[in-house]
Design a protein that fits this description.
2 domains, four-stranded mixed sheet, binds shikimate-3-phosphate, binds phosphoenolpyruvate, 12 helices, globular, UDP-n-acetylglucosamine1-carboxyvinyl-transferase, Chain, 411 residues, alpha/beta
Length: 411
């Protein structure tokens, strides 16, 4: 597919965009399904990251090498899974970027419990070699400030360990809604997990009492439609399925955040209607996005489009995601004439910009969210999105769904 030219467009109302299941919920459930084969998953994600996870789990015992490409959750969740596969030996590797994404905190925690995991290249980073063993340990201390995925990874195997698992979190907990999502998924399947005062307790559980899970659609994917509506004319509306008001996904906070940008969310049976109801009166917004790091890119681009300055904080994890997202955002936002300053955990959009006639080229840095976060600016000016196929990491149908809204794309 490579580059896509997007001509400046005006959005057409649409009542039927169906986003596939949350990749976060799906990848948790796929792992649990490998441990509890009766589990049935409905509305699973069609993302590459979930395909990677599914394929890796289907090749257990058949292949001694697993490549997870760019999928952070697959890398982290499979590490714990393989650590408890007695008698199996496996190497997990990924893309070049994956080999720069740290995993030491998780490996140390698992080895503390009795696992046998070692590094093949650089200490602390994939690729890793795992020799599966029976783990007898049932208490572990882990640093919670770098990635919640390490904690989820441990939580997902906890109920399969002979003595269950008690995880004590130390330091400031990052991306906490993802830990709560894991907790809720476990509880809803009948695993009596608890999370109180920085301690997570997961009892050994033989059998799930509820064995069907319906995955809600992906709120992070919905964020791009929030941005499109925020940048549209008053009364423009889009209906998205399948979403609910009591979501397990922290990114559902979008409904609240986008009120600041004149977007109303109406919850119907199992869908949401996003409607532009007014032009925002605010000129500046400050948000701490520690609980919702994946929507930072969407929000700052919306602010650029609306001429609102912003200061987004709580974002230290952005530097170790698919790319250094803070640097990537600064590079691309400045192409529009904005001034942007970044620190180790924040990004500030300082001025508004004047849109131009010539298309601006957006580099995507092998990061799906760079491509999708910038796309809504086509309501302001033409764009070229480089390596547009990156979107398939989380949302393979993204460009097709944009076409449903009257956006004109040329490959
Ligand atoms: O558990 C999950 O499904 C995720 C947790 C978050 O990662 P961090 O905890 O590393 O911030 C998030 O950014 C990622 O997209 C998905
Ligand atoms: C950070 C992300 O994914 P992961 O860490 O699972 O690669 C993401 O989807 O934005």
């Amino acid at each position: 597919m490579n580059d896509i030219l997007l001509n400046k467009s005006e959005l057409k109302n649409n009542q039927g965009i169906i986003i596939s299941g949350s990749k976060s919920e799906t990848n948790r459930l796929l792992l649990l399904q490998a441990l509890y084969p009766n589990l049935k998953i409905e509305n699973a994600s069609n993302s590459d990251d979930s395909e990677v996870m599914k394929n890796a789990l289907q090749s257990v015992g058949k292949s001694s090498e697993i490549n997870v490409y760019h999928a952070g959750t697959a890398m982290r969740f499979l590490t714990s899974f393989y650590a408890i596969q007695e008698g199996l030996e496996v190497v997990i590797s990924g893309s070049n970027r994956m080999h720069e994404r740290p995993i030491k905190i998780l490996v140390d925690a698992l080895n503390q419990l009795g696992s046998d995991i070692s590094y093949l290249n650089q200490e602390g980073f994939p690729p890793i070699k795992i020799i599966g063993k029976k783990i007898q340990g049932n208490k572990v201390l882990i640093d919670a400030n770098v990635s919640s995925q390490y904690i989820t990874s441990l939580m997902l195997i906890g109920s399969s360990l002979p003595n269950g698992l008690e995880i004590q979190l130390q330091g400031k907990i990052t991306s906490i809604p993802y830990i709560k999502m894991t907790l809720s998924v476990l509880q809803s399947l009948g695993i009596k997990a608890e999370f109180e005062n920085n301690i997570i307790k997961i009892p050994h559980t033989e059998k799930l009492t509820n064995d069907t899970f319906v995955v809600e659609s992906d709120w992070s994917s919905a964020s791009y439609f929030y941005s499109l509506i925020a940048l549209s004319k008053i009364d423009t509306e889009i209906t998205l399925g399948y979403f609910k008001q009591n979501s397990l996904q922290g990114d559902a906070v979008l409904a609240e955040i986008y009120q600041n940008f004149g977007v109303q969310t109406i919850f119907t049976d199992n869908k949401i209607i996003l409607k532009k109801i007014e032009n925002p009166s605010i000129k500046n917004i400050n948000l701490n996005l520690n609980n919702a790091p994946d929507i930072a890119q969407t929000i700052i681009v919306t602010c650029l489009g609306l001429g609102i300055t912003c200061n987004l904080t709580g974002l230290h994890t952005l530097k170790i995601k698919e790319t250094d997202r803070l640097q990537a955002l600064k590079n691309e936002l400045e192409k529009f004439g904005a001034s942007v300053s970044i620190s180790a955990d924040s990004i500030q959009l300082i001025n508004s910009v004047v849109f131009q006639n010539d298309p601006i080229k957006i580099e995507t840095y092998q990061d799906h969210r760079m491509a999708m976060a910038f796309a809504p600016l086509i309501l302001k000016q033409s764009l070229v999105i480089k390596n547009a196929e990156v979107v398939s990491k989380s949302y393979p149908d993204f460009w097709n769904d944009l076409k449903l809204l009257n956006v004109i794309l040329k490959y």
